[in-house]
Design brief:
Number of domains: 2
Distance between the termini: 41 Å
Number of helices: 15
CATH topology of the largest domain: 2-enoyl-CoA Hydratase, Chain A, domain 1
Shape: globular
Largest sheet: 8 strands, mixed
CATH architecture of the largest domain: Alpha-Beta Complex
CATH superfamily of the largest domain: 2-enoyl-CoA Hydratase, Chain A, domain 1
Number of strands: 8
Order of helices and strands: HHHHEEEHHEHHEHEEHHHEHHH
Helix content: 40-55%
Radius of gyration: 21 Å
Structural class: alpha/beta
């Protein structure tokens, strides 16, 4: 278990319980279960207190937890007959974006998502989930394919933002993001999106301009990272806590503003402590959102999507 900074007291208690049990395994006659069980109860109470009212900065930390399920985990668990499609037919294949055709509960769909990787090697290969222009152009190609064959599109968003490197800018990063966002608005098939970790800037919007948007309970979605915001506004990245408060990037705030449609509950302690339950909950949310859009004409799907984004924010302003 990887522990976050604010979870260190919890790590000590859980560590002590594990030490006791390890000693008992080595010394067969030692009975420590009573003491270990008391530590387990104390740890459970502390975990509940820690996650009862997370502030926005702590939610950022949870959303970035390395043990949270990533896009590949959801695809492997929820979809069958997944056939990955690679390349943008222009420059290269971007490993930060994965996608292809699959079946969800027997229904053919197109799934697209950001993949961060799960260890040092795969994180470097996946560029930490930061897509380059070819990643967005691959997504456009997949959405065109879905539109042509009348397949619903499911996007799984988990990115700190689009890659800001020199090569990406030279190959038209801003244009690729804009065209991916435009394509989301144009396709005449149901488009649903789930923010499974970080939803950063236009790199996330390019996949999440959807008919229905869900967020995991401890995920984040904002125009810029708290660190980037702090660097611009205060010239000090250490002001990220204040920036996280101001950005209103939590699922709870964004639902009030009308930016997202539903919140998917996470197990106590975050998705990393109940990966299978989290994945199952996301699958159920996706199926529910697709059911809500079932039977709508292509024209209505496009119109509803456009009206949704034109009206965005008015709910929060009225409140």
């Amino acid at each position: 278990m990887n522990y976050l900074e604010f979870e260190k007291p919890l790590a000590e208690i859980e560590g002590k319980a594990e030490e006791l049990r390890a000693m008992a395994r080595q010394n067969k006659g030692m009975d420590v279960e009573k003491e270990a069980a008391a530590l387990d109860r104390k740890a459970a109470d502390m975990l509940k207190d820690l996650y009862k009212s997370l502030d926005p900065w702590r939610k950022c930390q949870v959303a970035r937890h390395p043990d949270r399920p990533h896009c590949r985990d959801y695809i492997d668990a929820l979809f069958t007959e997944y056939t990955p499609l690679a390349g943008d037919r222009n420059f290269a294949d971007d490993h930060a974006v994965m996608g292809g055709m699959a079946r969800l509960d027997g229904r053919p769909v197109v799934v697209i998502g950001h993949e961060k990787g799960h260890d040092t090697k795969t994180r470097i290969e996946r560029n930490f989930g930061m897509a380059r222009p070819e990643g967005y152009r691959k997504a456009i190609r997949l959405m065109d394919l879905a539109h042509r064959f009348g397949l619903p599109v499911i996007t799984l968003v988990d990115t700190p933002g689009a890659y800001p490197g020199k090569g990406a800018e030279e190959r038209g990063q801003a244009e690729a993001i804009a065209r991916s966002t435009q394509k989301c608005l144009e396709i005449g098939v149901p488009l649903v999106s789930v923010i499974i970790g970080e939803g950063g800037s236009g790199g996330a919007v390019a996949f999440a301009t959807a008919n229905r948007i869900a967020m995991l309970e401890h995920s984040i979605y904002s125009v810029i990272s708290p660190e980037g915001c702090a660097s611009i506004l205060w010239k000090d990245a250490e002001k990220m806590r204040e920036a996280a408060e101001a950005l209103r990037l939590t699922a709870q705030d964004l639902q009030k503003l009308g930016v997202i449609d539903r919140i998917v509950a996470e197990p106590l302690g975050g998705a990393q402590r109940g990966r299978a339950d989290t994945i199952a909950a996301v699958g159920k949310a996706i199926e529910t959102m697709l059911k809500e859009l079932s039977g709508r004409s292509p024209e209505r799907l496009v119109r509803d999507r456009r009206e949704k984004f034109l009206a965005m924010g008015q709910k929060g302003l009225a409140a």
